[in-house]
């Protein structure tokens, strides 16, 4: 019996199912809201299914990441960067709840970065993509990506030092 080549839709569906947590995490890093992140992933899947602009199946990773990033940025533009606080964040900041999220300061600092710096930091270090892949996803020159990573990390370091200084002042 002859084995059929999977359809376009089947390839997309399989890839998305294998990587759904990564896509959700990336969308969430932009919008900081569970429902909005899920909507972005769903919209991205729909765009991918309708698009058919992928020429090489081997480039599906960077192609779909690009769709997620652009959909997230479109969402933020439409929302004028209004951040809705989700239940988890509310519980975390309410009195009497212990800090179970170890890197909350890091995530706060990342969220305070401009989208240009946040995008490269999240894609490079949280999604573990190569610099070349980040450049392809964001449609930027590799040297621009390297510069933004360098400046973004420098800004993060400054923000983290400021947070540690403020914390030490409050506790001391």
From TrEMBL:
Q: Which SUPFAM superfamilies match?
A: Sigma2 domain of RNA polymerase sigma factors (SSF88946), Sigma3 and sigma4 domains of RNA polymerase sigma factors (SSF88659)
What InterPro entries does its record include?
A: RNA_pol_sigma-70-like (IPR039425), RNA_pol_sigma-70_dom (IPR014284), RNA_pol_sigma70_r2 (IPR007627), RNA_pol_sigma70_r4_t2 (IPR013249), RNA_pol_sigma_r2 (IPR013325), RNA_pol_sigma_r3/r4-like (IPR013324), WH-like_DNA-bd_sf (IPR036388)
| Transmembrane segments annotated in the record for this chain | none
Q: Which positions fall inside the RNA polymerase sigma-70 region domain?
A: 17-81
Q: Name one GO biological process term.
A: DNA-templated transcription initiation
Q: Where on the tree of life does the source sit, at the highest rank?
A: Bacteria
Q: Does the keyword Cytoplasm apply?
A: no
Report the Gene3D superfamilies cross-referenced here. Answer: 1.10.1740.10, Winged helix-like DNA-binding domain superfamily/Winged helix DNA-binding domain
A molecular function (GO) term = DNA binding
- Which positions fall inside the RNA polymerase sigma factor 70 region 4 type domain? 105-156
**Entry keywords, A to Z:** Sigma factor, Transcription, Transcription regulation
Which Pfam families does the record match to this protein? Sigma70_r2, Sigma70_r4_2
The entry sums up its family as follows: Belongs to the sigma-70 factor family. ECF subfamily.
Protein name per Swiss-Prot or TrEMBL: RNA polymerase sigma (SigV) subunit
């Amino acid at each position: 019996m002859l084995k059929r080549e999977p359809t376009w839709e089947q390839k997309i569906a399989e890839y998305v199912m294998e990587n759904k947590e990564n896509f959700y995490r990336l969308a969430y890093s932009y919008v900081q809201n569970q429902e909005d992140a899920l909507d972005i992933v769903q919209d991205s899947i729909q765009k991918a299914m309708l698009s058919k602009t992928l020429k090489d199946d081997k480039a599906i990773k960077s192609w779909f990441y690009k769709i997620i990033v652009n959909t997230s940025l479109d969402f933020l533009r439409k929302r004028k960067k209004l951040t809705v606080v989700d239940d988890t964040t509310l519980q975390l900041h309410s009195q009497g709840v212990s800090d179970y999220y170890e890197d909350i300061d890091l995530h706060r600092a990342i969220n305070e970065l401009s989208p240009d710096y946040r995008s490269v930091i999240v894609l490079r270090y949280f999604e573990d993509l190569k610099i070349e892949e980040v450049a392809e996803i964001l449609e930027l020159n590799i040297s621009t990506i390297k510069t933004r990573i360098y400046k973004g990390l420098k800004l993060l370091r400054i923000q983290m030092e400021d947070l540690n200084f403020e914390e030490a002042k409050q506790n001391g």
